[in-house]
């Protein structure tokens, strides 16, 4: 227990320090006039529309007490702005904005509203890291060292880093997914008031996850199937069968109904219908655009569900896994080891009595991959790495931990893992320290820069263009960005080397 | 708070009794029959039974055998294999079954039901688990691509049933080495070779597996007392006992191969002989102007044969087509099941069984690679191509593979895994319903390049409304008009297979025909319209009664 607390302390310390060193931000409580051609430029805090689209709602909630956007704030979020009953909204699900609101209110008092809001993501990410550790250690019975390595892979050798230091939904999705996974597992093992507590959290996490990103209703489904499986257990008896129902899971559905009811109310109140999603709102067309293009005068409505199509899967699969634009294995080859880990654990899971949990983890990965392969824009717009696969990376990183701790040749495996970690982490840090505004190949070819992956970020490093609040505020001009990059990188490499090589295991997980 | 209910066995008595009314096979038969009938009724009500251009061609070939100007088995032709058409003959005798396409629905529907039952039996052979086997059959029965094709006269189901039947008996033979299953495998292999060319690959693979099955034994592999070292193994062969074992195995293999091949390959020999006898060329089906190979040449000339001589693209095209045809989630689960099967060392025949079930994959990849066939599937075909949807129905050949290995995965899974698989099947079905997963076979039939109904010409309506009586001269291959959609009796058609009417009509069109239907650049157009001397006769004896950009229709003057 003491050892576990120490390791969790290490995770908190590492997460807090390294994420903070790369946190995107600038001093000030930006107003609507501060965005265009200023804060919305690459390596600035609001370089892309997802950050802007969520942030403008936070500001409007805090300053006007309303979720809808004033005209001037709508211009900030443009073109990802919809219109309903004459009011403006961004296309993004509302959850993230509501969760970050308290941080805005606090940060605004110190002229650090944007930094505080983005800091919320760091906290959310760090909680997820702790739960990744707990899942690896307690559910999959990995050693403390392998579990810690899994955490480090997810935190510092994946694209999760880039999206933990800015305002996106991904960190929240991972939080709800990992905590719901852990709670569902605990629920299956526990009884009494604890079972009620865990069941409640599973429902809460499911309901809240939908508020931050609508596709989570599908992404989280495997957990809900597992939860249902844990609720009903059937045993063979001589006289027939015994069916045991854990009523905690059934009764706590009320929590889900309550939160989802509030979500529906929000939709009805602002968007005009309980089932109207933000992304499906009629698009707002800027007067200038209408003037330039007569056909743009009428805004169009969209059916969000039609963005997903099985036909897109082969291409999306390639883009998300193998392409040099966003491919997981191109950006973060450390995850190739997770495939071996998945394979290695298939037999072990049966011996360890966790085959259901193993299937659940694999099902979550496959659901994520399939869902976003079928998404019309698997690149995630201008983005760094396969950002849609961040939830999968949480579980893939656990299987990297399995890889280094299972079977023979563990020394060789660790060495290989270390080498791949060095590459993957170097790429991850490049993105976290500079910009996520990386175009797709198609768009890059139309631009002078012609770069559509992390090669673009290398240019940023050499030209001292960083998004880091700490670097820009305190170190710019005193230390080159290359040096800053190397300091952080070497620190991570040393920690990982320590975890992998220097410490010794008494038992293999 | 957990509450336990004890459900006594007596409570299940009603279900058990219900289940015991029939054997599992009979339940599958009933389920397949009902879903097949419903799917056929749906296709019929939407006019999709003969949506494919090929669907009518299959019906017409069978009809001409019994009802044409020159009836007889020669009407079976030399391109498409004859068995599906022979099956159609008793049904197309009835005009309404021929014109509606229901004759084809009956044949494909019977094949569908038998396939479902034998997918259950085959999975049961591998798992000895009723639930898993039932799930496998259910996956097959609920596949909308299969359901659509079983309602049409297309030949895919005819092949699938013989593929499944032959595979089932072959695996049974591998399991118990009795001769009867081997003979049955050969018999159904024979039927497969006369259904679609994929069947040729099936019997070749079965013969190959026979070789692999016996010869590793001769060298010491696969035995329970395997030699521990390589030298021991080679000693086995070199020693008198080893040589004796080799000789014994050789004679066993020789006998089984001859027994199998005598029946299994006779269909191929018959077809080659038929080609020679009727068309003067045993290889007519590979290089005549009507062959698939000749059709692919035009795609190649346009640079639109992407898989030609590119094995990776061929693999990609057929893999994606298979995945889409089986349902993406079902196929992923089946792949997991396949790996679980491969690594189950208890089954010493697992690699042979896998090779057998992968025959459609090998065959289609090979034909794509060799340029013998082409598939255009929207997800990977470049949008610059003239067509992006064509021949995707070839993917359904992998539906038995997907069903069987999903069943196997269910067998290997615990309760949670089984629950997840059931959820997967429900989700996949829902995805088909909401349109996330396209029903490719139906899409191609209704709007792809394979479709007839997507491009029904106005001339079709003209003939349907104006044809009264008399013989019609038309190039059937060009599919200018759909005969089943008019009231023209088949015996009033002159097409290329009606010797000597066809040849004589191309010289003297007025000799037999009252109507002439021609499409730009088809055989009638080239031989009559484009040749001045015949063209003069055409306009002397016929009035042009219909003109469109590509199609002309003439009617005899004296009859006006």
Automatic annotation (TrEMBL), chain A:
<feature type="transmembrane region" description="Helical">
    <location>
        <begin position="388"/>
        <end position="409"/>
    </location>
</feature>
<keyword id="KW-0472">Membrane</keyword>
<feature type="transmembrane region" description="Helical">
    <location>
        <begin position="482"/>
        <end position="502"/>
    </location>
</feature>
<feature type="domain" description="Glycosyltransferase RgtA/B/C/D-like">
    <location>
        <begin position="111"/>
        <end position="256"/>
    </location>
</feature>
<feature type="transmembrane region" description="Helical">
    <location>
        <begin position="195"/>
        <end position="212"/>
    </location>
</feature>
<feature type="transmembrane region" description="Helical">
    <location>
        <begin position="247"/>
        <end position="265"/>
    </location>
</feature>
<feature type="transmembrane region" description="Helical">
    <location>
        <begin position="327"/>
        <end position="346"/>
    </location>
</feature>
<feature type="transmembrane region" description="Helical">
    <location>
        <begin position="167"/>
        <end position="188"/>
    </location>
</feature>
<dbReference type="InterPro" id="IPR038731">
    <property type="entry name" value="RgtA/B/C-like"/>
</dbReference>
<keyword id="KW-1133">Transmembrane helix</keyword>
<feature type="transmembrane region" description="Helical">
    <location>
        <begin position="112"/>
        <end position="132"/>
    </location>
</feature>
<feature type="transmembrane region" description="Helical">
    <location>
        <begin position="358"/>
        <end position="376"/>
    </location>
</feature>
<feature type="transmembrane region" description="Helical">
    <location>
        <begin position="218"/>
        <end position="235"/>
    </location>
</feature>
<feature type="transmembrane region" description="Helical">
    <location>
        <begin position="139"/>
        <end position="161"/>
    </location>
</feature>
<keyword id="KW-0812">Transmembrane</keyword>
<dbReference type="Pfam" id="PF13231">
    <property type="entry name" value="PMT_2"/>
</dbReference>
<feature type="transmembrane region" description="Helical">
    <location>
        <begin position="416"/>
        <end position="438"/>
    </location>
</feature>
<protein>
    <recommendedName>
        <fullName>Glycosyltransferase RgtA/B/C/D-like domain-containing protein</fullName>
    </recommendedName>
</protein>
From TrEMBL, chain B:
<keyword id="KW-0812">Transmembrane</keyword>
<feature type="transmembrane region" description="Helical">
    <location>
        <begin position="392"/>
        <end position="411"/>
    </location>
</feature>
<feature type="transmembrane region" description="Helical">
    <location>
        <begin position="257"/>
        <end position="279"/>
    </location>
</feature>
<feature type="transmembrane region" description="Helical">
    <location>
        <begin position="156"/>
        <end position="173"/>
    </location>
</feature>
<feature type="transmembrane region" description="Helical">
    <location>
        <begin position="21"/>
        <end position="44"/>
    </location>
</feature>
<protein>
    <recommendedName>
        <fullName>Glycosyltransferase RgtA/B/C/D-like domain-containing protein</fullName>
    </recommendedName>
</protein>
<feature type="transmembrane region" description="Helical">
    <location>
        <begin position="351"/>
        <end position="380"/>
    </location>
</feature>
<feature type="transmembrane region" description="Helical">
    <location>
        <begin position="420"/>
        <end position="442"/>
    </location>
</feature>
<feature type="transmembrane region" description="Helical">
    <location>
        <begin position="73"/>
        <end position="94"/>
    </location>
</feature>
<feature type="transmembrane region" description="Helical">
    <location>
        <begin position="202"/>
        <end position="221"/>
    </location>
</feature>
<keyword id="KW-1133">Transmembrane helix</keyword>
<feature type="transmembrane region" description="Helical">
    <location>
        <begin position="179"/>
        <end position="195"/>
    </location>
</feature>
<keyword id="KW-0472">Membrane</keyword>
<feature type="transmembrane region" description="Helical">
    <location>
        <begin position="101"/>
        <end position="119"/>
    </location>
</feature>
<feature type="transmembrane region" description="Helical">
    <location>
        <begin position="325"/>
        <end position="344"/>
    </location>
</feature>
